[in-house]
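Milestone M4 deliverable, item 7.
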Amino acid sequence: MTGPRGLLFILLSVAILGVVACGGSSAPTPGVTATAPPSATEAAPSSPQPTSDPAALLPDGDRILEDVRHLSETIGPRPAGTAREKEAADFIAERLRGLGYEVSLQEFSLGRETARSSSLAVTSPEQRTIATVPFERSANGALRLSLAAAGIGRPEDFPSSIAGHAALIERGDLLFNDKVKNAQAAGARAALIYNNEAGIYYGSLQDSASIPVIAISQMEGQKLAESLRNGDVEVEVVVGSLSDAVSYNVVARPPRRDCDTVSGGHYDSVPQAPGASDNATGTATILEIASVLSRSGRMEGHCFVLFGSEELGLIGSRAYVNALDQAARDRLKAMLNFDMVGVGDETWLLIGTPALQQRASGIASGLGIGVARGNLPSTTSSDHASFINAGIPSLMFHRTEDPLLHTPEDVTGRVEPQLLEEAARMGVAMLESLNAGG
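Output delivered:
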């Protein structure tokens, strides 16, 4: 449901950056390398002829929804460094080439620190396996341990007998980083952090852990907690590095032109989620904005980048920014980031550089779209942060937080075409304003 026309702007506190990228960390990641300039095949595009059909020059929410459906259903979950993430990159690249843009795939290494696998097996009093997601910056290990309950992970929650055990910790109240540090200080040899809402999730640590750390669902965590109340529980915890993995940014620019603006969003998802809201909606909206500019003959100076591996800690956007020379950075008027733009019955949030927030607020008002200037929760961030950290003005378009973020329930059926259309309309108008007004 959209905000009412003429909604007064709600001025929330303006703050930028967080720690985790819609699930990932904005802290530097070891082992990340990026090619500069972008590597991979560049196709010479055949530019479509601009059209004078007014209907063709307007964003269409149903058309955007079809791309959301392809990404989240036909391709499905798109974890960083996987074949499905690459399939999504190829789909995006093909679409942008068809619109007449020069397209390249910028390859970057994820490094062994971020490409991981994990497993959890209960060995006593019963035998079963539990679905897991390894934390970013977890230690590797393969351990058979007794399990002990440790509340929400405060120092006082760890029993005196925790040394040498795996700690079962509930998500919530404390940062993951603090929970794990407390577990390490108490002598735990592994940490199992179960969700405080339905489903599993993707977790990230600011600091590298010295013990294996894995995420499990609320249901499985509660089952383990109940088993502990009835007696001893033995588990086998495994976290291991995969072979060196790579990911890709899809970079599209007008033929033979530099970038005055960059608009983008991430196309990867967490392992267990179809990623419709997060972030097939942003990716599909970017494709529609690029299409509108192409069909109207207004491509000049506007570049588009769809980022890989955001969920591991903004890795793709940081790789892109790090590969820009100073002249390219100085040329950029703005970066527009679209992340989670199709779900929610609240209002739009404009997050980022104050001058861009002000410009976008005026544009949204003219379009009859209710917006608020605000900030993300302190534990989250998104790809605009990589540009802000480099001194590049940046703005994020975002719906208020989705309770089914990073869960298997993040599906296409929840996405509202009208919201997608609003996002694309604001994006097109913002780019035209930047082009006209500098």
